Amino acid sequence: MRNVKILGAFVAAAVVGGVGLFALKNKSSGQRTLHLYTWTDYIDKQVLAEFERKHNVRVIEETFPSNEVMISKLKAGGAGFDVIVPSDYMIATMKQDNLLLKLPREKIPNLTHLSERFKNVSYDAGGEYVVPYMWGTTGIAYNSKKVENPPKSWKEFFETTRAQTAEKRISLLDDPREVIGAALKANGLSLNSTQTEELSKAKMTLLTFKPFVSRFDTMSYKDLLASDDLWMAQAYSGDIVKMQAQNPELRYVIPEDGATLWVDNLAIPVSARNPELAAEFINFVMAPEINQRIALSIHYGTTNEKAREMLPASELNNAAIYPPKDVEARLELFTDLGNAVEAVDNVWAEIRASDAVPAEPPSAQRQ
Amino acid sequence: MNSALLAADCISVRMGERVILNEVSLEVREGEFFSLLGPSGCGKTTLLRIIAGFSQPSSGRLMWQGKDVTRLSPQHRDLNLVFQNYALFPHLNVFENVAFGLRMQKQSEPVVQTRVREALALVRMESHALRRVTELSGGQQQRIALARAIAPRPRMVLLDEPLGALDLQLRKDMQWELKSLQRQLGMTFLYVTHDQEEAFAMSDRIAILSGGNIEQVSTPEILYSRPSTRFVAQFIGTANFIPVDKMSAHKARHLSSGLEFDICTSDERDSAGNFPLKGELLFRPEQLCLRKTASAATCLPVTIQMRQFLGAVVRYHVEIPGSKPGLLTIDHSSVGHDTFAPGESAYVELATANLCFFKEQSRR
Amino acid sequence: MRWWGMPAKIWMSCFILLPFLWLALLSLQQTPAVNAPRQVDLHQYARALSPPFSNIIFNSVLTSLLAALLVLLIALPLTWRISRMPQRKRNLWLALFTIPLGLNFVVRVYAWFVLFRPEGLLTKMLLDLGFDVALVSSQLGVFIGLIYGYLPLVFLPLYSIFDKLNQSQIEAAQDLGANLLQRWWHIILPETRLGLMACFLFVFVPMLGEYLIPRMIGGGLVATLGTQIESQFLGSGRPNWPFGAALSLCLLAAAALVLLVGFSLLRWQKSERKASWSLDL
Question: Which of the four, A63, A179, B290, B316, has the lowest number of CB atoms within 10 Å?
């Protein structure tokens, strides 16, 4: 009995001590925390560390694989995120659902450095709620050594003959709009279609392609491409540029039959615990010197004009990051589908839940 | 002479530096009640487990009717074990417990029924056939364990201190039952115990073990009256030792009193073949008699230290003044003898013939 | 002293009973919209119990049953061997087998993913031996991952069951003529069956809802009950909480069913032979 009492006293002391230490640590530095909810590998860790030092705060970074997950978490009563990074097509719904705080523009003077085209975007008139952060494209990545006849379009990408040579070495993004969008483009249809027959065609393409797919993955596919576990993937432009340092055989191509242009934005959710700190952070990130460092580390297109001017030629001439004008014309933005998004969701659910359909002969597909 | 059923041939068990059994050889004959007797730690349980097949000796062989069975697994040996803690199967009822061995032998159902019934009748537990074993008392469980062991009709039954957990009266009853059962069945029983009285009460022959060695194997009478080593002498019954010098092959003398005694023939001489040899004489309590006066020639003066009334006998502890070791234990039947009180002086009359002499023990 | 149980009762009500009721109510909603009409509707269950989800549920239950069984079968001889060892060796081996539990579950699964992927060591080795198997993005990979992930959990409970076994009973059985198989069937299994069933359920139930292993090793291609529930609440594609709730209750029902079957199986095993002659006692 005496031993139990001693043990109990020990445990109690440890708990009190632990809690006390923890509280003391936070109290003594008077630290506030910034909760950042963003895409994987989307900001330079050194930049975060510098922000922590400069403003004497702690930054906690959490990542999500798709906009839908981010929205879910936010709606579920997210863990008090201060800064979130939604994509363009989500903003309209988020504004409608009153999820975003109006930006305190006077606290973010660095907004003047935005490029002209990003100062007044279609999804956020007057830049009231979001600050465009980085932009990029979604295209096809492949290993030039392993894939002999690399695809130049989404149509070629989904071809089963080529897929067979890279069977189980292919990945698609874990993102319904991107995947179905690519299939729509492969069939020569609009990226934002919600028509039943058109979605049906896209579904057919995907179901036929599914047996060759190894993963639906947004977060770790680039590492698998680097390690040769994947030979072909639906990929984000910046991811591939980053991985080319590790695996020089990786190539990125913007498909000829159309690709997504997306813009990710910085925003402050209504439920933010430290909105002033969030504004400070956004301003910090928009400072040209900082922004240029971020752009150099994540290899996506920056929306900041001043920062862009500061980039080295090697970066600016990389067609994967800053494509030439004629290629830019091929790019499409996702639009907000409103309630019609349910049709896309159903197709996504069916694709993910079903066993794959055996490949149909090409003649049958031309319906 | 009955044939040897089981023979241990120079069985040794060594664990690192420790010797647990040292070249143990013995024979168990068909139909006899044989006991392994010894204090705790003497190795008797180890020997039993080797015989049962749960252990292997470091060296030596075990022979069963002439065949080497040292490495034979327990289920193939034609002997059954009655465990110290009964080891009944709790999830089976009494009947199924007893029937277990028979079912393993794949006996037909009628045979199983008959044999189990017989076994239960022998231990007088027929009416308990359908009870759960956990509901039985210690003594009842013991009997079921016995029935389970004998039902398959093995050639030999091994019993590992089976009565240890029972109270005195029950133990005495069970001893009687075991002996008569063995007689009735004609089975060979190999019994392991540390209780000398128990072994004597039931056995035809006894092997005495100490520290991994066999001290003596013989009938209870011979062990009692003609122990071959001092250990056996002092382990069995009550032993009194009086220091003497052996003067010749048949005579020994008590130095301080000059008394002379006839001893059993033995060939113990000192290394050079010379007498006198220093040693001790064994006197059992009944070979000593207390007298008020020095009556016969072989009397020594003593002082009464303690008197114990044990019912059938009265036990006196007496001291021979000036003699080492001091105390003697003397039993008188409680009727027809003089009584003595502690502190009194008296005389002890010693028997003069058929005594056992033991050489002086060298200090280990 | 009756109020000793109060804290536990309060905890159970707040954190188990109430959420369960909320989940049940949620599953009766017709649409995922927050302001859906308040009417009782079994639409979600209809969807859950028809293809393709019925197949997923069935497959998940089957896979989990098999995986849990295999976990037990693998752990049994190992743990048995350990329980017969001398004390010091015993602790060493138990520690060795249980240390993986100290590692983060995700890290462990990821380690196997590294071995399982197409360029991974294990896959390459198998290829050299002539087996061209896909260990990731396949049912097989998920199956192996499940077994590996849950194996360290059973060693300690199994060991404690075997430790309590009475060695002399097993020796008595052997002495009376039972070989290894017979000893197991007649003595060891009947005595340990309750504990074994508990160990089985101990891994089976979590396996049903497991979503990390199918996600990481299955690459999003292997659809299990766990991954489906997760994607309905959090995943890519629009969340559908009522449907997720319905799936969750299906999971609970499946687990409850297996529990029931399991325990009635235990009782069935207890067939007793009656001594016929004793009827005239």
Answer: A63
